[in-house]
Amino acid sequence: MTEMRALADLYEEYDFLDADDRYRLLIDLGRELEPMPDPLKTDATLVRGCSAAVWVYPTVREDGRLHFLADSNAAITKGIIALVLLTVQDRTPQDIGATDIEGALAPFDLRNQLSSNRTQGIPNMIALIRETARRYGG
Length: 138
Description:
The chain is mostly helical and 138 residues long. It is built from eight helices and two strands, in the order H-H-E-E-H-H-H-H-H-H.
């Protein structure tokens, strides 16, 4: 629930900003992502269908919660990844499976704020996260 509150707070700030400042906010969010070690950036962790390179690597915490490392070679895309991860990071596979990720991101209206090539990979990343949660019991 804390992550969703953080997402709501972030939206309040995002909604107040003009387009250029929204881009800056996304870039700043991307900079805050936990670093993903280069050896994990492989063809196996590459998200298909993204115009930028996007890698997602899931790990399982001792308590069964999923923790995702993710990165991109594009600054704004990294910010979008950070938004997605705010909805699922360190949650149980069951919680992730029950989360309406698209609904949580809907207020940000990313499809209308960003070019289509920046947002086309979002559904693929969400699908990969959901599939990971299913594999781990979600």
